[in-house]
Amino acid sequence: MSERKGRERQEAIIEEGRRALGMSRRDFLKTSAWASAAGLTLVACGSDTATTTVAPATTAPPAPTTTAAAAEPTTTVAEATTTTAPATTTTQAPAAVQPTLIFEMGIQPRVINSTVQNIQNQKWIADMVEDKLYDWDSDVNIVPRLADGMPNRVDDLTVEVTIRDGVSFHNGDPLDAQAVADLYTFIQSNGIWRSHLRPVDSVEAVDNLTVRFNLNRPYSFLLSKMALINIRHRDWFEVNDSHMGSGPYVFNEFVDGQFATLTANENHWSGHMPAIKDIRFNFVPDPGARLVNLLSGRSHYLGDPRFSDLPVLEAQPNLTALTANAPVDILWFEQVENPPTDNILVRQAMAFSMNRKRVNDVVFQGKAVTASGPLHSASLGYDPSYRPYPDEPDIERARALLSQAGYGENDVVDFDIVIQNDNLTRDTMVAMTNDWLAAGLKANLVILDSGPWVNRWVTGGFNVISVASQEGYSAGNTPWVVLGVNHSQDPANFHKYNSPRLDAILDEVDATDDVDRQIELWKEGNRIVAEDAVSVPPVYPPLIAAHADNLQGIDQGLLRVNHIRQQEWNFA
What we know:
This protein has about 575 residues and is α+β, with helices and mostly antiparallel strands. It is built from 17 helices and 23 strands. The strands form seven sheets. Strands 10-11-12-3-13-21-14 form a seven-stranded mixed sheet, sandwiched between helices. Strands 6-7-9-8 form a four-stranded antiparallel sheet, with helices on one face. The protein has a four-stranded mixed sheet with strand order 15-19-17-18. The radius of gyration is 24 Å and the shape is globular.
């Protein structure tokens, strides 16, 4: 971003915040919290094409009032500790309470279709409109939702699920066994869930309320997939701008580039009527604008704040900043067929010269966990005692490995890192470049939009490819995605890694229901991939969010699998 455009954006954000808070510009800039926010907005701004967009004005609940005397603790889920907010001097005029929840997100879903996408921004909407057969509880256990009880394992290759009687889609059509079978049959060959259902041969309705899953091999993760896949009406399988389900909210309106709205379902099969009647999801791409909206009371929940905004959010006594140890992964894959990353010694040199501590301190405000392989610290199988690589770079070890690989003392080894165009991933990579260069490794950062990035991934045109992803929406609390993609037969193994022992581990994990055995297998698989330096992300980020304190009922246990459940929220 040019200096001039950066100043213009900063001034626009300051003006919006000043007007929203009803303060003079001088008083506004005196506020230590906002001075920090404005500076961080300029430093961490996105591409030159981004715009500063403040959500449409709404009648909001009481806005945050920041005073030294009113400072309250900030709840942190991961560490279960409380932190007293620093004193500030901002005051805001209260606004009237109203029934619409204003939920802001930075990225509009590419399509409003749960068969095509399962990323957080799409699932925040879809999970309210479309129920699933099973769901997660606060203790990260899977419990029945549309299903009337847990699955019945007829034999190793046959699983049956009974559907609740009397459930209807929002348009009145029955949600029966045939509706479920139709959905699963469709997604077996279409959309995002295809690879997840490869062990499923067919799905059929045995009778009006019984669905049978016919497997081609034992599959222990079928239950977790049933807790993640939304049941969508058959006429909406290929509709990309609306939802139709049986959930606690009815899809109302979608305006591309602006917002989507939901209205509470007064006839939900559970008999529960959400306390909040209406939800409006505003698509606000500029992170500074999202921060202003929450600080000023224009919005109530911010699901994707920047880590650089955490000091500001934690300083507000009438806001709660949430930090949860949840599987928010920096997916990291090294291409084993393209030089120089085809050489394991080069890959290990890269891993030894990563500055994980700097990434955590500078990019993630010290909230992340330094990584030791693909398994996130929130995943089953994570072993905190396993530390194959140091938190701070071991330049001498890295240079020795490059020497073993045949490189001279003055040689510089070039490699490409392909990332999507977002500040978080870019800042993560930049934080490691100097130490790599000190070790004799030159990282060439290739920053692409989503489409070109995917093309580079599927064609294998990279040395390292990386992207941030909330894996709880596709794998729950298991490392099914981050480790499973390294199976030699996985259709997404575009980095061409092949380890017969890892393949055997992953095949056994798929087949066993013994969780203790799964955990041991996950641990071994993590060690194999980490020591081959194929998937070595620098850190495990936490999930962060923030909300107005008068928004109550947020189940913090669910955050551990990236989930939220707005139908249980209310305004105090």
